Amino acid sequence: MSETNDMAVARAARLDTATLSDALDRLGIVGQCHKIKGRDPEFRMAGRAFTLLCGPASTPPGTVGDFIDDVPPGAVIVIDNGGREDATIWGDILTEIAHRRGIAGTVIDGINRDVHLCRTLGYPVFSKDHWMRTGKDRVQVERMECVVNIGGARVAPGDLMRGDPDGVVVIPRAHEEVVLAAAEEIHAAEEHIREACRGGMRLDEARRQFKYHQLQTRQ
Questions:
Q1: Residue 3: pLDDT band with limits 50, 70, 90
Q2: Which residues form the signal peptide (predicted)?
Q3: Measured distance CA(3)–CA(7) in Å, rounded
Q4: 114 labeled part of a ligand binding site
Q5: Which 8-state DSSP code applies to residue 32?
């Protein structure tokens, strides 16, 4: 199925990361990417993971960006740089090409630079932080399309990625239907609570009626 016709991606895009996080907790799945945040608070993205594992540069050094033309439109580039904060792994050339090619966004366990361009283009980049020091001759891609670690969460190629102002979650492909169904149930219950309170019901009563305190309980 193509990324543009992927109904699971569309369902994930309609849900916020907080709701998806609650669904993951209910199911006992670790999918919250700790400390990974948008370089702009308005960034949002959803798509399937195209993963890369990076490491310290060899002698002679390898490259960090030559993979970009192999990423399908609609995918999310997911880069495990081991949380490294002293050298970047993403900058303006990659942002421009990714944006032009219709890639959904980039998630980095590490840092990037050139935030002005990603904000100007509206291309979503989620990372631990940003700083200007280049990764050239310091970092290189070791493997592509392999299992990686992003903020303590396991990400496999093809897993669902969702990012918004609260951060990033990964939904393992093997569990995506049950996670999405649970998140949609939680979202509906919280909407019922809001509507009931707008109609004059006490919050504690609305929460009891719609089983708020059980929504995230592990099943």
A1: very low
A2: none
A3: 9
A4: yes
A5: B
- Residue 66: other Cβ atoms inside 10 A: 9
What's the CATH code of the domain at 32? 3.50.30.40
Residue 93 annotated as binding? yes
Cβ–Cβ < 8 Å for 139, 159: no
Over residues 165-191, the mean pLDDT reads 96
CB 88 within 8 A of CB 132: yes
Q: Confidence class of residue 212 from pLDDT cuts 50, 70 and 90?
A: confident
Bridge-based pairing of strands 167-171 and 160-164 is antiparallel
Residues 70-93 pLDDT 10s: 999 999 999 999 999 999 999 999
pLDDT at 2 over 90: no
Are 125 and 203 found together in one domain?
no
Judge whether 91 is annotated as a binding position: yes
Is the domain of 195 the same as that of 106?
A: no
Is 152 annotated as a binding-site member? no
Q: Domain tally for the chain?
A: 2
17-27 vs 176-198: helix crossing angle, rounded to 10: 120
Mean pLDDT of 160-181: 98
